[in-house]
Task: inverse folding
């Protein structure tokens, strides 16, 4: 394949539209459910990951902020919303909600799932 925008579009190299998922989490005695939209891992995620690796941000907050979007693809959170820095009165995002969002991100991106290795075939000789 010759690298071009058209060729990359044909093989699905762009993230496309966000994927809708339902999440559930508990806060104390209450259980909540919400519809979220997850953007597949992308350039924005890679930049956020690199910044965190260099000590310029939080990797988990950056991942959530880059991947959790509205139906049109606009980010719902900033990393500071998640860590609580955006509004110290509000504080950081609930831990159970954080885990539910990370699970949705993992599900959409097939994280934690391994692909099968190529099957071994016999050459017919011993």
Result:
């Amino acid at each position: 394949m010759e690298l071009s925008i058209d060729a990359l579009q044909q093989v699905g190299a762009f993230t496309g539209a966000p994927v809708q998922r339902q999440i559930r989490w508990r806060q104390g005695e209450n259980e909540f459910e919400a519809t979220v939209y997850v953007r597949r891992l992308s350039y924005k995620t890679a930049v956020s990951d690199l910044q965190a690796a260099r000590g310029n941000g939080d990797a988990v907050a950056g991942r959530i902020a880059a991947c959790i979007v509205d139906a049109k693809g606009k980010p719902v959170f900033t990393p500071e919303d998640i860590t609580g820095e955006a509004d110290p009165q509000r504080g950081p995002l609930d831990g159970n909600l954080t885990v539910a969002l990370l699970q949705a991100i993992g599900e959409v991106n097939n994280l934690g799932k391994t692909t099968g290795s190529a099957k071994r075939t016999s050459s017919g000789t011993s």
